[in-house]
phenylalanine--tRNA ligase (Nitzschia inconspicua), 396 residues
Amino acid sequence: FSTATPPTDNAALKELLTATPAHPNNNIPPHITERALMEPKLYQISPHPLYLIKKRIEDYFQVVGHNVNSDEGFVSMDSMAPIVTLEANFDSLLIPQDHVSRSPSDTYYINDEYLLRCHTSAHQVQLLKQGHRQFLCTGDVYRRDDIDRSHYPIFHQMEGVKVFDEDATEEQVLDDLKATLEGLAKHLFGAEAECRWVEEYFPFTDPSLELEVFFDGEWLEVLGCGVMRPEIVKNGLGKGDSDTLPRAWAFGLGLERLAMILFQIPDIRLFWSDDERFWKQFSEDMAMDGSATFQTYSKFPPVYKDVSFWLKKNENDVVTFHPNDLLDLVRGIAGDLAENVEMVDQFVNPKTTLESQCYRITYRSMDRSLTNEEIDELQENLRSKIGSALAEKVEL
Ligand code: FA5
Ligand code: MG
């Protein structure tokens, strides 16, 4: 196990993120670096909806203090830097070497030791080791992921962990977890909200579940949770050789998803808006009660553009292109004008066995009408970036 400790202050973060030449493993584009260095975090700015939802959740858990150590009640941690070791993000959670979340197509690596955390679970063991037994931990997390209205490469999670007495059974812990989170859903959305449990798999919990809430015509996944694997709890509690199995539950929830449901925010990009038509709809008193419905101030027309290319094979006859390679380019060029990207066509040439894929990009601004010229320019830019940055992986 590595003993490296990640930097905690912003200057050290910046140095690591912008080191030149970048480590060969570094796959972090500039638009991600920029946001990783942003201070304060969105959930620290009143009355941003992420600030409001975080306060409401802390209210439900009757948080006794922030960034402190306490024997009683839940403590809320919200200023842990987003750079963590591979050990913290994966190994300490028993995530196997071949798990897809370790792949550079899914996770943003800085070098072979550090990455941008892909979940707040990266802090579970660390916080247990510091002596915390009931805590919430909020932070910005990073993933190479889909482009649509509920996915964004930087989003915010809140982790919750509760350790039980040695004599608690797995069933008691699971029942407590479900009751706690069902209570949270009611606290946030009222008794009428439609929720359902879905069985899941996480390497670090067993059993594992996800909670979905019905929103805007579809089931939206809001959190993952489960009974922590005893080996992980043992490691965190420092009880390496005791015979009894320590029990704890853990959950990781998506703050954007919960805020979208609570305030009826239709698109995840809105959280990054600096438009006053967005900001003026929220106020500090909404942290405590009343549910407000967000008034969409615009639904400007979308512009659709398709791009298609052949997937090249490397010397071992394997395709190296991953759709997330394209999505990073789209985000880098179009920023928040990119609303959705989906593959609309796929074709394999029987003679060459090469595959071609066609992607449809939906461009739309949340604040204004787009002109054809500006989108043509973005699309042209994208094509040329595909030709250069992905030259080894695809052919236009
Ligand atoms: C996890 O990240 C686990 N660490 C959660 C967990 C914690 C399980 C503790 C067990 C114990 P998952 O990948 O499903 O799980 O993400 C958790 C939540 O983050 C999702 O339910 C969703 O609400 C949110 N989320 C995931 N990806 C995105 C994204 N790209 N944009 C916005 N929100 C996202
Ligand atoms: Mg999930």
Observations:
- The radius of gyration is 22 Å.
- The mean pLDDT is 94.
- The longest strand covers residues 205-215.
